[in-house]
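LAB NOTEBOOK - FOLDING QUEUE
OPERATOR: T.R.
BATCH SIZE: 2
PURPOSE: Compare the predicted structure-token outputs for two unrelated chains run back to back under identical settings.
PRIORITY: normal
REVIEWER: second-year student, initials M.K.

ITEM 1
FIELD SEQUENCE / FIELD STRUCTURE:
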Amino acid sequence: MEPSPGLTFFFHDTYKVITLGGGFMAWVELWRGILLCNVLLDDSEPHFIPLPPPLKADNELIGDAQEFRDIAVVQGYIKYVEIQSCISDGWVAATWSRKITLDSWEGGWRKDCELHVSDISGSLPELLGDEEARTAQLNLQSLHTGNPTTSLQDDDVVYFLAKVGLRDDKSYVLAVNMRSKTLQGAACFGAERVLDMNFTCTQSRISHHLRNTPGKS
């Protein structure tokens, strides 16, 4: 593996660890790429998968990468999402995927979807049922938006953290279908202990295993 840019050695800052099947585990560095190896073998050769080029070529890759990017394994694919800007001046987001092939890691990324916030249809106040939001004429383009989180169950859906002001004590989670460019859901939560756009939540498959219990008449 080549040295990291500006260094004489390979540097990998792990943000999350994912399992790929067949004994392969992957350590995700959201600014650069994915380091993986088969942990069941004594002499496993490590592999490195670079991430796609940034949406904005001259973007300086600094700060907390989780505010801009996420990676997850969904239905046999590695899914990657990036949002170009967290500031409320119009943002662009895109998703990529690559099929997990345990016998070879030579494949490339496929760009699945890209959208601008102005492309998204759906009313945030109506989804929230929030009179305060309705009165304030809350709209997607006026929000600071970041922390993209790939859905583990709904293909093409990405969750975003959104705030009116970076220091507000109220935040929103937005469910956006990247392919149909629609706002599918929204929820409000108290964010008194959340500074700016810091990491707030993560995805889970637990709801996939829940069963509704019939109520008593």
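ITEM 2
FIELD SEQUENCE / FIELD STRUCTURE:
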Amino acid sequence: MWHYYCSALRYDLYNVLPSTLAQELLAEVLSECLAILACRYSQSCPTYNRTSQIRIDITAILLCTENLLWSVCHSDKALLQPEEGISRWIFTIHSYCNTLLSILAILTSPLEKLYELYQNGFPECISSLPSESDNRCLLQWLRIMQSYLFSNASLSPLSSDKIAVQRHLKLLLSQPSYNWNLLLQMLVLQDCLIPRILLSDIYVDKEKIEDDVSAKEKTDKESKLVQAIVMVMTYCESLPRCLSAILEGYIDRHQLWDQLYNLSGHII
């Protein structure tokens, strides 16, 4: 029910308020809710019958929070490197989720395992609150709940192209309104991976188009897509490599080099 309430609140805020204000209010509500939940679960007394329910409850809370967190972040940096002075509510959301994760581990783990792990004291990440510069500890709960998107390997500069693009795409689709900055970042990310994928699926069969009206309509839409991508990349004057990275594969696939050469000859 809590997740349904937050989702409904998100829908109402996004349809009534400006994007920035809606995200800030939703982040504040989410942070305050997590503070109450963390306080209540930290005071719970687990029994043999209640342990599994506590484990399920906290796991569900963390998964729901991860789903909502994309909606309150306006950039990839705000999600992965929040600063307490700038992104206060996002920073506290991470902190409360790490607290819930610690509660989950302490209340539901076997006592002998807890003793083996903490007999020499608490690790540094647990014994102190996350600081602005220590994002490794701040994102610990995300690494556990969504290891595919937030593992140490996926967050490194040498991570897989597809993982970084998936994060940006999910962030873009979670915004309350069109975010052109995020869209442009996603288009040029990882050597223009998304535009290259879109253009790789375009195939033109002239003989089939002449006999099929639906195929002709589809081809017209694909042509408009190509024109839109080329137009956007043309305006990226600071990134001249983007346009060539997109068009090289497309021209090779459709064998358009001769036509391009003839066209350039006419222009000259």
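REVIEWER COMMENT (ITEM 2): Residues 127-133 have pLDDT under 50 and may be disordered.
FOLLOW-UP: none requested
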